[in-house]
From TrEMBL:
<dbReference type="Pfam" id="PF00392">
    <property type="entry name" value="GntR"/>
</dbReference>
<keyword id="KW-0238">DNA-binding</keyword>
<feature type="domain" description="HTH gntR-type">
    <location>
        <begin position="34"/>
        <end position="101"/>
    </location>
</feature>
<dbReference type="GO" id="GO:0003677">
    <property type="term" value="F:DNA binding"/>
</dbReference>
<keyword id="KW-0804">Transcription</keyword>
<dbReference type="InterPro" id="IPR008920">
    <property type="entry name" value="TF_FadR/GntR_C"/>
</dbReference>
<dbReference type="InterPro" id="IPR011711">
    <property type="entry name" value="GntR_C"/>
</dbReference>
<dbReference type="InterPro" id="IPR036390">
    <property type="entry name" value="WH_DNA-bd_sf"/>
</dbReference>
<dbReference type="GO" id="GO:0003700">
    <property type="term" value="F:DNA-binding transcription factor activity"/>
</dbReference>
<keyword id="KW-0614">Plasmid</keyword>
<dbReference type="Pfam" id="PF07729">
    <property type="entry name" value="FCD"/>
</dbReference>
<feature type="region of interest" description="Disordered">
    <location>
        <begin position="244"/>
        <end position="280"/>
    </location>
</feature>
<dbReference type="InterPro" id="IPR000524">
    <property type="entry name" value="Tscrpt_reg_HTH_GntR"/>
</dbReference>
<feature type="compositionally biased region" description="Polar residues">
    <location>
        <begin position="257"/>
        <end position="280"/>
    </location>
</feature>
<dbReference type="InterPro" id="IPR036388">
    <property type="entry name" value="WH-like_DNA-bd_sf"/>
</dbReference>
<protein>
    <submittedName>
        <fullName>GntR family transcriptional regulator</fullName>
    </submittedName>
</protein>
<keyword id="KW-0805">Transcription regulation</keyword>
Length: 280
């Protein structure tokens, strides 16, 4: 007969094996899919940032729910997120619409960006990694061609990446998050952005000055160069608007019904890869 100690040892081994099997099963359990509201929020947000849903477009909950083939609940929550991000505004009677950014708004954004990104440049000069600095120099080099040729779209894409690298490399996550929100709001004001050939060349020169300060690890100079760069851009925006004799608030753009923005093919191509179904 087996002794009591032997029985206990066997029981311990069996218990250990059972525990291992449970742990393995938990590890192999499928990772939860993205929430419906998150998928909806990202889809609408992307449509706003790319201009698919232009400023002033009404964000009708019933229409968006029908076009994206989801219930109204995740649409409502997604729209509230967009309002909190500054990408949409809610009116008591008309509901929500894509936010409009006028000159006054834009100047406020640049003032805050100058403070935030000035600090980000200062922090980067103190601790930016060699890899991030190499990436930044690569973007700076790539900006040369569109700056000379006057390729506004190409330059803006690289300009966005240039500033993203700096704020994402500064080591301050709250600063980076705030800067990201301001950048999103800027996408609503492309009609007001400076786009002359002279502006592109000046911007590229200022970027070179910023990068030089980062390479030489001069925090004060990096901060000053970034602040002066964004202040000059802000001035260029004001000059453009003044030259065109635009009213500060700008004309009211026509409202576009969401169903003309989201075609069935577009909605399906996005949502087929998300667990949206038709439930909230």
């Amino acid at each position: 007969m087996l002794s009591l100690s032997t029985h206990l040892a066997q029981i311990s081994v069996l218990a250990f094996r059972l525990l291992c099997e449970v742990l393995v099963l938990n590890l192999l359990r499928p990772v939860p899919s993205i929430r419906v509201v998150d998928a909806v929020h990202q889809r609408i947000r992307q449509a706003i940032l790319t201009g698919e849903l232009p400023p002033g477009t009404r964000l009708s909950v019933p229409d968006l729910a029908r076009r994206l083939d989801v219930s109204r609940s995740p649409i409502r929550e997604a729209v509230l997120h967009l309002v909190a991000e500054g990408l949409a505004v809610e009116h008591s009677r008309r509901g929500a619409e894509v936010a409009r950014v006028n000159l006054s708004d834009l100047l406020e954004i640049y003032a805050v960006r100058a403070a935030l990104e000035g600090l980000a440049a200062q922090l980067c000069a103190e601790s930016m990694s060699a890899a991030d600095l190499t990436a930044l120099r690569g973007v700076l080099d790539a900006q040369g061609a569109p700056a000379v040729s006057g390729d506004v779209a190409g330059y803006r894409e690289l300009d966005l990446r240039f500033h993203q690298i700096i704020v994402q490399s500064c080591g301050n996550s709250r600063l980076a998050k705030s800067a990201e929100q301001l950048t999103a709001e800027l996408s609503l004001a492309t009609r007001l952005m400076a786009d002359s050939a002279e502006h592109l060349r000046a911007s590229h020169t200022e970027h070179r000055r910023i990068v030089a300060a980062l390479i030489e690890r001069r925090p004060d100079e990096a901060e000053r160069a970034m602040r002066e760069h964004l202040a000059r851009v802000s001035g260029a925006v004001q000059a453009k608007v003044a030259a065109q004799s635009q009213v500060l608030s700008g004309p009211e753009p026509p409202q576009t019904a969401p169903q003309t923005i989201f075609s069935n093919s577009t909605a399906n191509s996005i949502l087929d890869h998300s667990p949206l179904g038709g439930t909230s």
